[in-house]
Amino acid sequence: MADANILKAQKYLNNMYGHRSEWVKLEEDGLTGTLLCQGIIRAFQIENGISPVTGNVGDLTLSKMRSLDPISKMNADDEGIPNVCILQCALFAKGYNAGGITGVYYTTGVNAVREFQDDANIEVTGIIDWKVWMGLVSLNWFNKTSGGKDKIVQIQQQLNADWSDIIGVGPCDGVVSRFTAYALIAALQAAEGIYTDFIGSLDGTNFGDQTTANFPTVLKQGQNGEYVKYNKLVQYGLYLNGYDPGRFDGNFDSTTKSQVAAFQEFYALTGIGLVTSGEVNCSTMKSLLTSKGDTNRTAKACDCSTVLNSQQAQDLKSAGYQVVGRYLTGTVAGSRRKFITFEEIENIKNAGLRVFPIYQDGGYQLSYFQDLKQGTVDAHTAISAAKRIGVPEGTVIYFAVDFDCYSYQMTSFIVPYFKKLNLVFKSSTNSKNYKIGIYAPRYICSYISDLGLAKYSFVADMSSGYSCNLGYPIPENWAFDQFYELKGNEQFNSTPSFDLDKVGYSGRDTGISNFDEVPYLTPDQLAESNSENMVEIQRDQFVYNVLEPLGYLDVVSNASLTYNQEFLLDTISLNGLTVRVTAEVSDTLATNFDGNPITIDVDNTGKLTASCEAEIEGLISGIELGDFEGIDIINSTIDDLKEVAVSITSGKIGVKVDLTSAFPKLTFIITSEDILPDSDELDEEITVEISFELIPTYEPEYNFEINVEELLAFGLTAATIIGLMALAFTPGGQALVVQYLITIGVLSQAAAGGV
After folding, report:
1. Which of 4, 252, 435, 542 is 20 to 30 A from 400 (CA-CA)?
2. Is 168 a residue whose pLDDT tops 70?
3. Among 628, 681, 641, which residue's Cα sits nearest to residue 549?
4. Does the pLDDT of residue 535 top 90, yes or no?
5. In the chain, ranges of CATH 1.10.101 domains
6. In 3-state terms, what secondary structure has residue 298?
């Protein structure tokens, strides 16, 4: 909802700074948000001579804030100060009543600042000092947002109260941001005495060697006093990782101990000589505050892009590794092969190792997922590659999202990608019943898994600075946890040397120890075989290109895509009518149309030609369906068929009416003799039929059924019969149908049975 004070701030800022080249004009809509906050930061930077003008708060801007003289309550008749005008805009933006944009810091503004200080849990003075500037002229918020949590607000407020002199003023919105995640590490460094004055920007704060060296030997139950400042951080870290200590007072009690123990167990920190259960050493603290944890810890799993020879495999086993992640396909830098081979499988088995398979032929940036066909292609490719080398039934294959993405990118591209994977994995293509896993940062893993689109997570925790890792707990379904890259001979002296990622191991996915017996293929044959999957990939893709515009893709996502067998898409209940929507897919070219089918014609811009679009709109013009509620469903489907035509680009669309069954059925037919029109090497046929079976609910006073064969024998056309059925679906329509049948002599007045 638009706010008059926000609108006032937007207009003031545009009028005051709009003549400057650095200014980005604000939308004057009365709505607060990130863009307004960035505008306020730009205004502050312009007004105070900070260059470059970025709209973000960095060290230069923070330094300027700290250098400004504090501003106390002014007199009502004092001359206005431009910086105060900016602060008044900031107060409005953050939801505080500044009174006006006058440049005079007076009673209402003072009260607003005091309210902000109270929300931020810093000293309430009513004086504009650097902490007020840092809090208000920022992208931070100081009241719980819709997605915020009360206990996170409490953590944020306590961080401000205890450490704002050193780490500055952070948000108190109940959401773990980059600032909050880094603030925990910075607060630890302040507690250790590494920092005794304001740090500056926290971005990139690291739990490094100095922080490690200054950490207390151990934190444990009953050890409070001087350790309270550390114990609080333990409690904060526990909560952010999904373990509620019940309090944030720094008292290391039995509850804190039990939660620490549970955390250590779930994160697989126990059993490797790393920790004492329930006690917090530096290794435990690293796992509480960073995604990668203690990179020196022992790992039972690993992954690599090297095709392992016998010595390399044995070296891995000797170093304590039990399971190794290996790729099903692909190359490194377009040249060095990284896919597992039959020879490598023997090397791994002989060394006593197990394998978990990874599919990654891309996924390093958003553009990979913007191709909506990518999920289908990857699923087929991975399944085929796994079958070729004998990956046994039920194995989890991990698909990669190897970058840090925003929420909108997640919903718009990553989720559809995994839905496409699931479509193929739930189809007859996946005869080995392989399962989908995900390799990605924490938040992405959890999001996809919570939607039921991945069984296990292989967590990219090594990238601890990713927003999708910062402040997020490890996924509940984590199987593997990649936390450190070993370069060359950093751990052992194999020939040739190779890079290796250390990976935590939960035991949920034990990997493969035995492969199925399959025909041997040389590495060259394996490399060439992906192209042979093109027919299978493109056939399924054609079906999905039909079903998605029609709105039935999710139906197939939750069931199996089967060929030459009718499957249910939807059941629609209307007034006096049930419409049963089904589909059937076959690998033949359809010829059974009523009338002539429409040839799809797409112009060079990718749009339907006008004539083709008109033909689709008139697809059922020869069939009289009457004016019943279900006609809207049919008409909507015809509109969607235009999108189908664009999606498949070539083929034919037609219609047929079936009156031989118990109830009339209207079927739209989409068929093609070339599922890959851009290829000269592939000509494969396919047909998808979408049927609407019309099932009336008869009025009890008319105990009859329409016998279609008898009506056809009597001379009624298919169109007339469909029209009668349509009329019967309307309120009171059955009485009219009965009267008509009596009139034409099909039904006697006394008839009570079927016609």
Report:
1. 542
2. yes
3. 641
4. no
5. 215-290
6. coil
Which 3 state secondary structure label does DSSP give 485?
Answer: strand
Residue 563, pLDDT score:
84
Q: What one-character-per-residue DSSP string does 10-68 give?
A: HHHHHHHHTTSTT--PPP-SS--SHHHHHHHHHHHHHHTT-SS--SS--HHHHHHHHHS
Residue intervals in the chain for CATH 3.20.20.80: 302-520
Report the residue count for the chain. Answer: 755
Compute φ and ψ for 345, nearest 5 degrees.
Answer: -55, -45
Residue 85 identity? C
| 260, 278 Cβ separation under 8 angstroms | yes
- Number of Cβ within 10 Å of residue 205's Cβ equals 24
pLDDT averaged over the chain?
A: 89
Contact 418, 453 (CB under 8 A): yes
- Strand segments (E) across 538-593: 567-574, 577-586
Residue type, 748: S
User: Residue 578 forms beta bridges with which residues?
Assistant: 573, 695
Q: Is 578 exposed, middle or buried (0-12, 13-18, 19+ CB in 10 A)?
A: middle
The sign of the CA dihedral 123, 128, 130, 131 is: positive
Tokens 């086993």 correspond to: 317
Sign of the alpha-carbon torsion through 542, 545, 550, 555: positive
Task: Enter the tokens of residue 464.
Answer: 């601890």
Strands 500-505 and 301-303: antiparallel
Structural tokens at position 307: 């095709």
**What tens digit of pLDDT does each residue of 566-585 get?**
889 888 876 666 888 899 99
Return the number of other C-beta atoms located less than 10 Å from residue 391's C-beta.
25
Q: Which CATH class is domain 215-290?
A: mainly alpha
How far is it, in rounded angstroms, from Cα 73 to Cα 81? 12
Domain 302-520 sits in CATH 3.20.20.80: yes
Q: What is the mean pLDDT of the segment spanning 61-78? A: 97
Question: Which has the higher per-residue pLDDT, 596 or 137?
Answer: 137
The CA-based angle 26-28-32, given to 5 degrees, is: 80
User: What tens digit of pLDDT does each residue of 598-628 get?
Assistant: 999 888 777 889 999 898 888 877 655 555 5
Please report, as a single letter, which amino acid is at residue 228: V
Mean pLDDT of 682-689: 82
**Amino acid 131: pLDDT:** 98
Distance CA 445, CA 454 (A): 8
Side-by-side strand order, sheet with 686-696? 567-574, 577-586, 686-696, 665-672, 652-658, 598-599
CA distance 512 to 514: 6
Tell me which residue of 579, 691, 594, 663 sits closest to 628, measured CA to CA.
Answer: 579
Give the tens place of pLDDT for each residue, 281-322.
999 999 999 999 999 999 999 999 999 999 999 999 999 999
Neighbours of 728 (CB within 10 A): 25
The single residue listed with the structure tokens 């701030």 is 9
Closest CA to 657 of 609, 620, 611: 620
Burial tier of 433 (Cβ tally within 10 Å: 0-12, 13-18, 19+):
exposed
Residue with structure tokens 């690993």? 302
CB 156, CB 185: distance < 8 Å:
no
CA distances from 597 to 415, 620, 672, 747 (A): 36, 11, 12, 36
CB 122 within 8 A of CB 161: yes
pLDDT tens for each residue of 486-519? 998 787 788 888 999 999 999 999 999 999 999 9
- Distance between first and last Cα of the chain: 62
Q: Which residues pair with 598 in a beta bridge?
A: 653
**Is the peptide bond between 549 and the residue preceding it cis, with omega within 30 degrees of 0?**
no
